[in-house]
Amino acid sequence: MAVAAGLCYGSLGTDTAGSVSIPAATCGVVGLMPTRGLLPGDGVAPLAGELDTVGLLARCADDAQAVLHAALDAAQAAALDAAATPAMERWRIATCWIHPDPAVRLDPAVHAALEDYATECSARGRRREARLAALPQWIRLAQTLLYAGSAAAHAQALRGQAPALGALARNLALAGAAMPPAWAHAALAQRRAQVDAFVAEALADSDVLLTPALPGPVPDWSQVLTSSPGFEARRLLDLFCWLSFVNYLGLPAIVFPIGRDAAGRPISVQAIARPGGEAMLLALARQAGHSRFGGRGFAQQPGLPLARSRERV
Fold first, then answer.
1. Which strand ranges, in their side-by-side order, compose the sheet holding 266-272?
2. What's the total number of domains in the chain?
3. 148 pairs with which residues across the strands?
4. Which of 28, 68, 110, 132 could be stapled to 257 by a disulfide with Cβ–Cβ 3.0 to 4.6 Å?
5. Residue-level pLDDT at 313
6. Burial environment of residue 176 by CB neighbours within 10 A (0 to 12, 13 to 18, 19 or more)
7. Phi, then psi, of 43 in degrees rounded to 5
């Protein structure tokens, strides 16, 4: 919210199941979740170590790149510069709009915005449809590691030997403590094969895969707050249905706005790339920001002064 309100140019954030991507999608900012391990997790309170990823939020892609550059060490920053992708004339995109879970329904306005953006991307490039039949399985595997990781990270608290946990962390940890350890071992053992399967289906001949960030309009807070009288479980589940599996795969992904709905709220897309594809994802988001919002982002606020864009923070 601070980034969207213009209180800062960018912010670091941790993402275990969508905690960078969801705020980006709901606030109309850019959310980058890098390849797992690109940004160090030193000093980060763990939730589930095999999923936790340090990412960032910014008002536009240029600001996101500046924040990422400042967070990297010298060698990593040089590699990012070397991989910097100029405005690409011919994007090779794969798209997947339909979730295999029939309970996840794509809102017509969101669908129209996604189609319009995909048409723009592929106007002088190539587009193909991808089918992510294994998506429900990846979500289950991510949930397994979320529960198991939470139990491991908060074992002392569960035994009463550390400060009490919040309700969410405690519920996740309790679920993990009741789960057979073999489930988490199996989820980890097959991760490499699952990543290979995803790349073969979605990225074999494509630069990026585009999916919805959210399948429906940005919800009111009362619809996703479990203690609210207006709570709607489906709206809460919809926040995660396209996002949490990326943490399991450990691939880089970026969420950025591509339009507005009838209420003026952002409609965002998620783009996923191969490991190390951060520069390409930022280039894609940059092009969308310029073509759709004049380079100033969804909130139409000035970006980070270029003279300071390389300062370390």
1. 10-15, 53-58, 30-33, 253-260, 266-272, 208-212, 92-95, 126-129
2. 1
3. none
4. 28
5. 39
6. buried
7. 85, 0
Q: Does residue 141 lie in a domain region?
A: yes
The answer to whether residue 108 is domain-embedded is yes
Chain segment 181-219, per-residue pLDDT in tens = 999 999 999 999 999 999 999 998 999 999 999 999 999
E strand or H helix that includes residue 67: helix 61-71
Give yes or no for residue 307 having a pLDDT over 70.
no
Identify whether 247 is part of a domain. Answer: yes
Domain that holds residue 76: 10-308
For 247, the token pair is 């943490």
Here the tokens at position 25 are 């999608």
On the question of pLDDT at 165 being above 70, the answer is: yes
Q: Identity (one letter) of the amino acid at 223?
A: Q
CA distance 69 to 64: 8
- Asked whether the beta carbons of 25 and 268 are under 8 A apart, the reply is yes
Could you read off the pLDDT of 120-153 as tens digits, one per residue?
A: 999 878 999 999 999 999 999 999 999 999 999 8
Q: Which residues pair with 161 in a beta bridge?
A: none
Query: CATH code at 91?
Result: 3.90.1300.10
d(CA 297, CA 28): 8
Burial string for 121-156 (b: 16+ CB within 10 Å, else e) reads bbeeeebeebebeebebbbebbbbbbbbbbbbbbee
pLDDT at 86 over 60: no
Whole-angstrom distance, CA of residue 228 vs CA of residue 191: 37
Q: Which residues contact 163 (CB under 8 A, 6 or more apart)?
A: 157
Can you tell me the distance from the alpha carbon of 111 to that of 99, in angstroms, rounded to the nearest whole number?
A: 12
Sign of CA dihedral 297, 299, 302, 306: negative
